[in-house]
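I trust your eye. Have a critical look at both lines of this record:
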Amino acid sequence: MSARDEAGTVMDEDGLWVRPRGRAWGNEAQRAVLHAIAEDVAKRTHYKVVAIEALRSDGYLEFVAIAGDDDARDKMLGQASPLALDHIHQLGVEMGGWRHIPGERLDDVTRAWLDEYGHRPDVPPSGLPGGWDPDDQLVRLLENDDGELRGLLYLDEPHSGLRPTPETVAVINTEAGVLFEAVISIVERELYGEQVRMVTQARRAIESVRPGLGVQDLRSELSRAMAEAMDVATVDVIVAGADVPGLEEDRRHVTELMREQWARRGHVVVERQRTWSTQEESIETPRSLTRLLDVHDLGSGLLVPIGAGDEYLGTLSMGRARDAPRWNASEINAATTVASDVARLLLEARLMERERALNAELRDVNDYRRDMVLTLAHELRNPVSVLFSHLELLALESHSDESRHSLEALDRAARRIEAMVADLMTLASVSDRERGAPSDEVDLSALLRETGDFLAPTASRAGVALDLVVADHLLVTGDAAGLERMVANLVSNAIKYSQEGGRVCLEASPRSVDGTDGVLITCTDTGIGIAAAEVDKVFTPFFRSRSPEARQRPGTGLGLAITERVVSGHDGTIGVDSVLGRGTTFTVWLPVRGPRTTS
């Protein structure tokens, strides 16, 4: 027999703590209903004693209702035993869904089992022919429609004093069959109802948490939301390695304990005297945990590990008030399910933090690169200016043909450096995140025509025809200077890489993409084209084609990189289609309303 001390702790006859397997099933209202069913079954079947065992979610069978025998009720009600049905199947005689186990079939092992987990009434044998023996058992396995066990129903001490027969069992089934189904239904609702209720509360709370939070903010909001939504006093999501005030002296021990629990998918119940789980012997509750219970005025706590794969991520801690019932199996299973949901959110938050940190690092690298490029460009401007000044002075004097060729080569080199400096500064400018989104209204039709007129002499000198097909009233929101540079780069490149007698065509017209109004610009040439292996590299800064024919044309390798940055800065898209030796087409789409602003 077990008892409880003044604190409510379960103790055995020697005053030792007992693992609380008893009274873990259901609530008092459910037990009352099953007790009423047991009494009704007793009346209908004409048996004095009726007992019902319910299957718990932890795999144990618990006596939840006993009618007709006060001694049996005092001993067995609320007690649980491991699920073991071998003796019922092996020793019992099947009768209409019931198993009759005659007392004479019991062996010593089975008798020992029944002495520990059952009850033998203190009554003499009936003495009748075919009479009932006090060791007899009549048991029905209560199974649902899928054949899954949900409980056991016992009948004992028939008023007739006789053992059952197929005929009397048939009468029992007729009279009480509907009650068997009622017991199955109640047990199934308890198996899943409490768990579903608790999980539903937790998930409703989880859904209320703002998305995109970091680990610490997520932990704080999850704890608050679940504590408000669930029938518990406190909820805390504790991340592995985090400090818990008041737990400093036992932090290492508790962390290792929960890490081991994750490895075996277990849990820990903390009560004031003892701390236990289903897989280890109980230990005396550490003083720090007892102090935490006192600080929060709690009677007990449930600790469920949070993890993913082999990695322990933290602990889901739930606290229950002093006068609240003990943690039952359904609640523990529900908390385990909730911990899985929390693990997913913690992983997402951790990935979010890593992504933000990586983006910050990339922004720092990009800023450093931009600053370095601007510094280099500024440093180059002074020596280039000095070169031009001296070249202009030298040009005033007469020179031999050889010297004149050298001066012309110096002039070309200086101008190439000057162009590269200008391109570097432009590239750094269009890559600057602090410039803000361009917001001017730009008449793109006029800009395209003006750029075409400006480059027309260049095309004429190269022997290349330049055609413009531009629709009227093409207005976009953006940066006029950047858009002009983008168009000039496309057209000047098309002219530069076209042979004499070639043709360049610049077209622009309205075009909606995915429901968004915009402008489509195409620049097509009949030039030397781009090798297929190099098409996806043309927007890379400083990229120059390996083609000897392309390398004969001067360039810095920055024009298309600048073009791509301008287009992306306007939330547009740019693409290229080229056939080596036949020409290239660049396609740009810009939204009418320009780039989106971010807060």
